[in-house]
Specification:
Elements: E1 4-9, H1 10-22, E2 26-33, E3 36-41, E4 67-76, E5 79-83, E6 89-90, E7 117-122, H2 124-136, H3 144-151, E8 153-158, E9 184-189, E10 192-197, H4 200-206, H5 210-215, E11 217-218, H6 236-245, H7 250-255, H8 264-267, E12 275-281, E13 285-292, H9 313-332, H10 342-345, H11 353-368
Parallel strand pairs: 2-7, 7-8, 8-9
Antiparallel strand pairs: 1-10, 1-11, 2-3, 4-5, 4-13, 5-6, 9-10, 12-13
Helix pairs in contact: 6-9, 6-11
Bound molecules: iron/sulfur cluster (2 copies).
Amino acid sequence: MEEKYYEISSDNIEKFVNNLVAQNNEVIAPKDKDGDTFYDKINDFKDADLNILLSKLSFKEYLLPKTETLFEYSISGSNINILDPLENTVGNGETDVSANGGIGSGSESSRKKSVKRIIFGSRPCDAGAGPIMEKVFNWDYKDEFFNEKFKNLYIISIACVQPDNYCFCTEAQLSPESSYGSDILLKKGGSGYYAKVITEKGLELINSSSENAGLFKEIPKETFPADKDWKAAFDIKKTQGFLDKNFTSGYFQEKFLSCIGCGICTYTCPTCHCFDIQDEGTNEKGKRIRNWDSCQFGIFTLHTSGHNPRVTQGDRYRQRLMHKFKIYNEKFNKYLCVGCGRCSRNCPEDIDLKEITSELSLMESSAGD
Ligand code: SF4
Ligand code: SF4
């Protein structure tokens, strides 16, 4: 759709958010929890912590939960009952689940709709992670668990004014004022905020009641504040260029000697999406679940034979770099990183991805001189 521009006062943005809550939407915002900030459900605008730069975790868990049940089963004699959380019970009394389309292949109309969720106060980097992840969840297989949640997720972001030293969203092809992945982008200014509405979903929120629509005053595009001239400190394409040619470089083994393989970098990352599937249960009943996993764990690639193709943390972090800055871009024309800096901010060993990607980019530049 053609973008629309509005002005809204601070008092009215508060009313807008509280109206969205009153309309029985699940509104999620950065919220203080024991001194740290996490995305969580709010019941009032005042519950949101909008002063921090970034929450500890992104809102990835609302698209890819830490633990997600794919289906449950129970067995009684020769009867197998499968409960698909996206459908109703299928295969009731039947042993042939495929008679009902099988798990994960039910038609859209037969699916239970997941709850409409509104993320309020996301940062542009977190908003950008959704459409980047959507590519891999719709590549060779349409992941209906992800898609159902993504379709029902509405994102209202607030542009950043002052990134910190770990941030490199501009180098990662976004910016502190990027609207990529947002339905509405707010910028502070005027009597409160300026709003850019990017998608039909954003417009749907504004027009969700006549009271809400009345809180926003439409303005011409020219009145919406222009983005600052954010300058990239290094060229991420050169980072990819280094990775293309230097798989066996000693850089990786030396640089990641201090990595303890804790996986925090992957768990806090808004774009890391590896999971492991497990069956839990007894002979009578159980469930199949998927859990977040991490390429930084030694057992991630451990073969049953005992062989492990990635022996050292250098091998493992190199894979993380290759996946994010080479392989994903080759396949989907997007880097698997939004430059939020969480992996570096939270690393107990102070391993800094901005420093690393910058170093690789500079090494590639020097090699080309
Ligand atoms: S957070 Fe740091 S120490 Fe932990 S696995 Fe990632 S790079 Fe290694
Ligand atoms: S790799 Fe690090 S900087 Fe990039 S999106 Fe993930 S947490 Fe953010």
